[in-house]
Amino acid sequence: MALLGGLFKKKVCAFCGEEIGLLGNRKLEDGDMCKNCAAKLSPWFDERRHSTVEQIGEQLKYREQNQAAVAAFQITRTIGTGTKVYLDEINKKFMISDASDLQKANPDVIDAGAVTNAALDIKEMKNEIYRKNSEGKSVAYIPARYDYAYDFFVNIDVNHPYFDRMRVKVNNSSIWLRYDDVQARRMGAGRPGMAGGSFSPTGHLNGGGIGAAVLNGLAGAIGINTGDMGSPEVYSPEYQEMLYMAQDIRDSLMTMRAAALGYASQPADQPATQQASEPAQEAPVSESAVAPASETEAPAAAEAPAEQWTCPYCGTINTGNFCTACGAAKT
Q1: Considering only CA atoms, which of 248, 251, 250, 276 is closest in space to residue 262?
Q2: CB 3.0–4.6 Å: which of 197, 275, 277, 282 could bond 321 by disulfide?
Q3: Nearest one of 73, 72, 37, 30 to 52, comparing CA atoms
Q4: Which pairs with CB-CB distance under 8 Å and at least 24 residues apart come from 265-274?
């Protein structure tokens, strides 16, 4: 009976003071919160149940302040279909939302300098195709044939007190590459079709630089052994549109990040993608840059050569944390 009494005991929201209905409680580590107050939290925040009343109170104050940031946001460019990435390239900020009323939705306004990385994540699903044999039974093709479906995401890692990743789905619904359609496109491009072969147009991809890979022949550039499949014409316009849109989000955020951190003042021969991977700090000014060195000064010690690595997507040799050709992150 004591258990039932506790279950039906009236609960009060620690923030608005309203009584919480039977199904309206949002439990905190040391208190209760109504669903209306919980809806004011950041949509990227997922640690409510492990947060104290004090911690949630601090976030609600931040969210009130964010309303003013949304009102002051100057949209210079919008990327996306359902969920959109809004850029304020003047003030080097961005926000993400699928709402039509941004002021009401109150999306988190993020300084571009808080971005630590942005990378594509393309999820592949496949559905095997069967044929009818002479007895009317469904049997598999040999080798197997598949229809493929793709969802395009951009993972944006940020330095933020309430979350560290913002995951954006670019397409509203899965993009299908039907086996028969792919074969027709290949034939239309003057490429002889395989006699029923098995292929995966892309496979599961993680990392940046995929848009550049498409321009150079996507499948071949990312090292997938697809025979004569390595050509962009096999991909539907919808697939390519979502791919370019995802890449645009990634490149735009990383470019704006570099500008926010002042990398434009760095040496022109230093790749921008490499600059964007460096920590945010002012570059020390060498005395030799403003005055001739004294004859008595000791020569500067030679810097150790940077470690080289080969990009797994396009094969470019790099020394920084990002590929200078396609933008892929160092693995």
Answers
A1: 276
A2: 277
A3: 30
A4: 271/320, 271/322, 271/324, 273/320, 273/322, 273/323, 273/324, 273/327, 274/318, 274/319, 274/320, 274/321, 274/322, 274/324
pLDDT band, residue 199 (cuts 50/70/90): very low
Query: Does 197 score more than 90 pLDDT?
Result: no
207 in Cβ contact with 221 (< 8 Å): no
252-268 CB burial, b ≥16 within 10 A, e <16: bbbbbbbbbbebeebee
Place of tokens 């990743």: 165
CB 111 within 8 A of CB 260: yes
Which residue type, as a one-letter code, is found at position 36?
A: N
Q: What is the pLDDT of residues 23-43, one digit of tens each?
A: 889 999 989 999 999 999 999
| Whether residue 121 has pLDDT greater than 70 | yes
Q: Is the pLDDT of residue 255 over 50?
A: yes
Token pair of 165 as six digits:
């990743």
For residue 75, pLDDT beyond 80: yes
C-alpha–C-alpha distance, residues 146 and 128, integer Å = 4
Closest CA to 159 of 260, 90, 84: 260
In the numeric block, the tokens 């905190």 are attached to 28
Q: Which of 287 and 4 is assigned the larger pLDDT?
A: 4
- The residues that bridge with 119 in the sheet, in sequence order, are 155
User: What's the pLDDT score for residue 1?
Assistant: 46
